[in-house]
Every structure is written in structure tokens, then in C-alpha cells.
Specification:
With 267 residues, the protein is mostly helical. The protein has 13 helices and no strands. The longest helix has 32 residues, at 214-245. The two termini are 28 Å apart.
């Protein structure tokens, strides 16, 4: 991969990972539209996802610190269920279950769809519909529960489809369940930390094999840095927009990209 392509894709990943517009969909469409050959394949995608993971950790460092301190409390489950951070750990673990099941059963099929720009474009249009539906949902006051965590996890599993925004679908589901906007966003981004971390661990073998090629080291490093910086800025932007206006304004962008891409690839 050329350095300029790595910088572009890293920037695209960082900006679209947190904004509810599907980072995977944008990466797939960019590669198809511009004919970018990602020689490091899945490894590059994992590296740029790791860049955005680092931006989440930095942004939520105070909350994450409290979560780590709450881990020993689970020695006493009854006490843990009365502790806010300990309960949040349980909710995050519950939210991971649907994605783990879907990934195990349909991983190969889902990866094939990433190379189909028509499917990706169609799913972006669907993402816009989901986002726009939140326009009619008032800012709620419901607290997070195990049941709500599982349903938000289902939305995260659904977002494994290329073109379906993970942040968009999970935040939208939380809003439909009556949660407060800021709480919905916070849980959406905290729950993805173990998912990306798990993907990084599974990809370590491919990563070590790829980095044996010194020609790929610079593009991988560039992709990581740009995704980290742009991801942090995009996260701050989304939280600000979400508090004031909600998430539905991003629907127009998803429709514009999805429809124009669909027309382009079907022409």
C-alpha cells in the first residue's frame, strides 16, 4: 500500500468510526471507488481500528480507570450489583454476546459482502433510515439494564454488516429503549473496547507476519496515527452534536453517500 493511501484510509477510518456513518462501509467504498489495493488486507483494517480504540481509551480514561478499580468487587456478586462501575462491567460483557455468536457463525459470509459495493451502499441507506427514526424519540431517562444491554448488543451484531454504522445502530437502539443521549453514546463507545481488543488479539498472527515486510511498516504506522488523531476529534464532535441535536442529522449524509454510490456502481 502506498503511504498516501494509508493516510487517506486512516483519516477516513478515524472520522467515520465514531460518527454514525459506518467506517467499514466508507473504507470498502473508498477501496472500490479509487481502486486502492490494500496489500496488508485485514491487518491494515485492524491497525486503524486499534488507532480509534486508543482514542476511545484516552477520551474515556477516567471512566475506564474506575472500571478497572471495580473489577475486584466482583469477588462478591451481591455487592457488585450495587456498585455502578461493577454493574457497567457486567452490562458491557452482556452486550458482547450477540456479536460473538454472529461472528462465529457468519464471519466468512460477512467478509465476502465487504467486497460488494452495491450491498455496502444499500446498507448505508438503511443506516440513514435507522438514524432518522431517532428524530421522533425524545431524550429519555431510562437506566441501563441487563435486558437493554443485550438488545444494544444485538444492534452491535447487526452492525457487522458492511455499511451499517456500529455507533449509529447501538446509540439508536439505546435511544429507542428510552436512554439519555449522552448515556447512550458513552455505553456505545465503552462496549466496543473489548470487541476491538479481541479482534486485535485474534489478528496478532497476521499482524506479525505482515510486519516482517518492512515496506508495510510505514503505511501501517501512518494509518494508526491518522486514525487515532482523527478518531479522537470525531468522538468529541459527535458527543457535542448528540447533546444538542441528537443523532438523526447524520441520516442525510448516509443517504447522500449511499444513493450516489449505488448509482455509481450500478451504472
Amino acid at each position: 500500500m502506498e503511504l498516501i493511501h494509508a493516510l487517506y484510509l486512516g483519516l477516513l477510518q478515524g472520522l467515520t468510526e465514531f460518527l454514525p456513518v459506518s467506517s467499514s462501509g466508507h473504507l470498502s467504498l473508498a477501496q472500490a471507488l479509487f481502486g486502492i489495493n490494500v496489500s496488508s488486507g485485514v491487518v491494515f483494517e485492524i491497525v486503524v481500528h486499534f488507532g480509534t480504540l486508543c482514542s476511545i481509551v484516552i477520551y474515556y480514561r477516567e471512566i475506564i480507570g474506575k472500571l478497572f478499580k471495580a473489577i475486584p468487587i466482583w469477588r462478591n456478586p451481591k455487592l457488585a450489583m450495587l456498585h455502578p462501575e461493577a454493574k457497567l462491567i457486567a452490562f458491557i460483557l452482556i452486550s458482547m454476546i450477540p456479536a460473538m455468536i454472529i461472528a462465529f457463525l457468519f464471519k466468512d459470509q460477512i467478509e465476502e459482502w465487504f467486497s460488494n459495493p452495491v450491498i455496502v451502499s444499500s446498507m448505508l441507506i438503511l443506516t440513514g433510515i435507522i438514524l432518522y427514526g431517532t428524530k421522533f424519540q425524545k431524550d429519555g431517562m431510562e437506566e441501563l439494564t441487563p435486558k437493554k444491554s443485550f438488545f444494544i448488543g444485538l444492534a452491535q451484531a447487526f452492525a457487522m454488516l458492511p455499511g451499517i454504522s456500529r455507533s449509529g445502530s447501538t446509540i439508536s437502539m439505546a435511544l429507542f429503549l428510552g436512554m439519555k443521549r449522552e448515556d447512550a453514546a458513552n455505553f456505545s463507545f465503552l462496549m466496543v473496547i473489548p470487541v476491538i481488543s479481541g479482534a486485535m488479539i485474534l489478528a496478532m498472527k497476521d499482524l506479525s507476519e505482515s510486519t516482517n515486510n518492512s515496506a508495510e511498516l510505514l503505511p501501517l504506522a501512518a494509518g494508526f496515527i491518522t486514525s487515532f488523531i482523527s478518531g479522537y476529534l470525531a468522538l468529541k464532535l459527535l458527543i457535542g452534536v448528540l447533546k444538542k441535536h441528537g443523532i438523526y442529522p447524520f441520516a442525510w449524509y448516509c443517504w447522500a453517500v449511499g444513493i450516489s454510490s449505488l448509482i455509481w456502481f450500478l451504472r
